[in-house]
């Protein structure tokens, strides 16, 4: 009885360190726990400050925006972990599929189902790529209509005066507006490369299965697709590290706005403030104090 080609390929790839490491899921769990704890701390601080502070409309809106920013960061991180786990599952499932197909060369349904799964995942990720930036824009419009801000609220906080540094603020707002699109598109394209190559390779394998003995060319193609999936896996890992760092900095900056109330240090928001109303409120508060 001949040795299944996958066993030969697996031993060669393990020797070269190309197979997905079993430490990946544990590493992502650590990242998830760390990021969830950091985000929960920041969100908890925001809500506590929102509940116990004296009620100024602008400050309440600021707390709401900060909380939404942190929750958005947590959602982005969870999405990255979800994508990474899906890719790991795809990689391990592909290697197991090879063994099964070698033993059951007459089973064509497995190949067809795998191709359909790739196409379905393609459609799901395409939906997320379109939905995420659209939802961000709609949320900005909603804030504009409800709270009456003077421009689209893109959840940007700057440690300086918006009017004095108008150009950098606008650049930052534009960057923040398109960043969800760029982030989701980049990860989507990485996954698309792997899934499309895998679907193409499955069609090649289906033709090769008609042979009595799987050729060396097929084994070489199997090695190439495993290498491609592992390289894509590594790219996802670096994206996850980078995204975790960015989200941590974003949460820290948002929390800074809550605990730095001195004038001039607080991050500026593009919110219309009714000066006459604010003055009357301050006057009424001083009278109550007296």
From TrEMBL:
Q: Does Membrane count among this protein's keywords?
A: yes
Q: Which residues form a coiled coil?
A: none
Task: Recite the UniProt keywords alphabetically.
Answer: Cell membrane, Membrane, Olfaction, Receptor, Sensory transduction, Transducer, Transmembrane, Transmembrane helix
An example GO biological process term is:
signal transduction
Any one Gene Ontology MF annotation carried by this entry is: olfactory receptor activity
Which positions, given as ranges, span the membrane?
27-52, 124-147, 167-193
Instruction: Please report the name of this protein according to its UniProt entry.
Output: Uncharacterized protein
Which species does this protein come from?
Nezara viridula
